[in-house]
């Protein structure tokens, strides 16, 4: 019998630690105030940006997008130190009870990661270890550490910040139920151990008893196999992390290798951007021939072995690397190829987890992009660039120019660059923030060829995904957007 999804809160997590990891219980309790404050900072900013409650009900807004909020915030004249209790009192329109549950789980898991601590002595040329060293989650999403469906012991066993080695299980699939795209592989599906019982319960796969040891990367369900260092594996797990349950749709299986070929070809025209291709995507068909979202996998190229490569999300935690000079080199390497691809018809969702930088002699040398499921493709722009649009399905193709730009701007500008500039100010002094935005503005003015794209970059506001409004909505997977003041103005 497969148990229903669980979402441990602070109390449930502490009880589990006292039973299974008493050595962490004390550190977990000590970490709770910092975890509450970290989630509250994200939530407090979202309440203001996304207009989720009337502003007169809230105290002073955070002065800048990423600035921390006090340990206690005031709403309706009452002080709150816990984000879930704040939402429980404000009751914004929509599914407030669902959001309260997710915030409770986010706080508990963030405190659990803080208690375990970041990895010490991590080598920069060990990508998995670098990714596992990051305890914090999404910089803006208040559900930054939700793992709805995983118990506390599951989180300790499988989450990257707890630095476990996971044993994927290979299951056999009947050849007539096996659908692959890209490079064909034998009908053996790697299944995450958390998902194994659910996979076998479908009756569509057979356990081979073969294990594949692997190290989880930042996304938890994507892993670096120990025996095949040249590739990474994205698995399907019916666990909600931040905004979605992390299964694999039929569109993702169909699109991955096709999008890889397209983006890799366009990236080859640029200076400095390369793509980690999704070489194979596979799923299992049921008796009606329908692909099963919970039975799928993607094989993806890994960065070159021995290279110093790290996700951009790591840089705010590395003030030794993220200096003003480093930021200047990074911006001049990152933005031109992203906007070249945009001009040619592809908007990458270049957030901090999908976008990696390779360092040589301590300086940014190459940008690597991975995970092509979130991009947008504009067929008319592709044709104008002399490229035949591939037969992509689902939400990837769009004819809307604003929708195309929003995909890139919200990730690369509103989230990644804003976080990096904030980190520069925190670690190296406020005076560096203005100079950093000047570098961004000059790079855009000097290198963005498309006039409309450049004008949109320099508009009064930038788009940002309204992640908290999405968690309150009837359909939490429908993208919603808000706007933030453009710091280049």
Can you walk through the features of this model?
The chain has 3 domains: 10-132, no CATH class; 165-301, no CATH class; 308-458, Transferase(Phosphotransferase), domain 1 (Orthogonal Bundle). It is an alpha+beta fold. The chain has 14 helices and 20 strands. β16 and β17 (363-369) form a beta hairpin. The strands form 6 sheets. An 8-stranded antiparallel sheet has the order 4-12-13-8-7-6-3-5, with helices on one face. It has a 4-stranded mixed sheet with strand order 11-17-16-14. Helix content is 39%, strand content 21%. α3 (83-90) packs antiparallel against α4, α9 runs antiparallel to α11 and α9 (324-344) runs parallel beside α12.
Mean pLDDT: 94
> Which structural category do the helix and sheet elements fall into?
alpha+beta
Distance between the first and last residues' Cα: 57 Å
Largest sheet: 8 strands, antiparallel
Return residue spans where pLDDT drops below 50 for at least 5 consecutive residues: none
CATH topology of the largest domain: Transferase(Phosphotransferase), domain 1
Instruction: Return the CATH class of the largest domain.
Output: Mainly Alpha
């Amino acid at each position: 019998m497969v148990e229903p999804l669980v979402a441990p809160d602070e109390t449930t997590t502490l009880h589990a630690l006292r039973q299974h990891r008493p050595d962490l219980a004390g550190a977990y309790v000590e970490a709770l105030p910092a975890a509450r404050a970290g989630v509250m900072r994200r939530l407090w900013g979202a309440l203001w940006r996304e207009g989720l409650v009337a502003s007169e009900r809230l105290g002073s807004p955070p002065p800048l997008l990423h600035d921390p909020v006090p340990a206690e915030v005031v709403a309706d004249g009452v002080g709150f130190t816990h984000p879930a209790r704040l939402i429980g009192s404000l009751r914004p329109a929509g599914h407030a009870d669902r959001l309260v549950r997710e915030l409770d789980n986010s706080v508990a898991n963030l405190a659990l990661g803080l208690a375990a601590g970041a990895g010490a002595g991590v080598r920069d040329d060990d990508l998995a270890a670098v990714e596992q060293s990051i305890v914090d989650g999404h910089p803006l999403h208040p559900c930054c550490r939700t793992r709805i469906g995983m118990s506390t012991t599951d989180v300790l066993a499988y989450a990257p910040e707890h630095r476990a080695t996971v044993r994927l299980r290979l299951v056999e699939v009947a050849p007539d139920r096996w659908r692959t795209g890209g490079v064909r592989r034998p009908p053996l599906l790697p299944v995450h151990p958390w998902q194994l019982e659910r996979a076998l319960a479908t009756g569509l796969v057979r356990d081979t008893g073969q294990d594949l040891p692997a190290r989880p990367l930042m996304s938890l369900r994507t892993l670096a196999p120990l025996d095949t260092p040249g590739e990474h594996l994205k698995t399907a797990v019916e666990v909600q992390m931040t905004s979605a349950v992390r299964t694999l749709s039929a569109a993702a299986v169909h699109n991955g290798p096709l999008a890889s070929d397209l983006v890799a070809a366009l990236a080859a025209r640029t200076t400095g951007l390369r793509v980690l291709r999704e070489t194979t995507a596979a799923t299992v068909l049921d008796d009606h021939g329908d692909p099963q979202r919970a039975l799928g996998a993607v094989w993806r190229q890994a960065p070159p072995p021995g290279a110093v490569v790290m996700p951009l999300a790591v840089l705010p935690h590395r003030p030794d690397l993220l200096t003003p000079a480093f930021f200047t080199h990074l911006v001049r390497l990152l933005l031109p190829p992203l906007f070249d691809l945009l001009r040619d018809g592809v908007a990458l969702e270049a957030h901090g987890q999908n976008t990696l930088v390779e360092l040589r002699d301590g300086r940014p040398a190459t940008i690597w992009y991975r995970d092509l499921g979130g991009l947008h493709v504009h067929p008319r722009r592709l044709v104008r660039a002399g490229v035949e649009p591939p037969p992509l399905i689902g939400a990837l193709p769009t004819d809307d120019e604003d929708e195309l730009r929003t995909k890139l701007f919200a990730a690369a500008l509103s989230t990644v660059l804003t976080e990096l500039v904030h980190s520069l100010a925190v670690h190296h002094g406020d005076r560096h923030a203005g100079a950093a935005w000047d570098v961004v503005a000059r790079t855009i003015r000097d290198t963005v060829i498309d006039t409309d794209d450049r004008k949109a970059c320099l508009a009064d506001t930038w788009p940002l995904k309204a992640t908290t409004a999405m968690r309150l909505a009837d359909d939490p997977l429908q993208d919603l957007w808000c706007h933030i003041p453009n710091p280049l103005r």
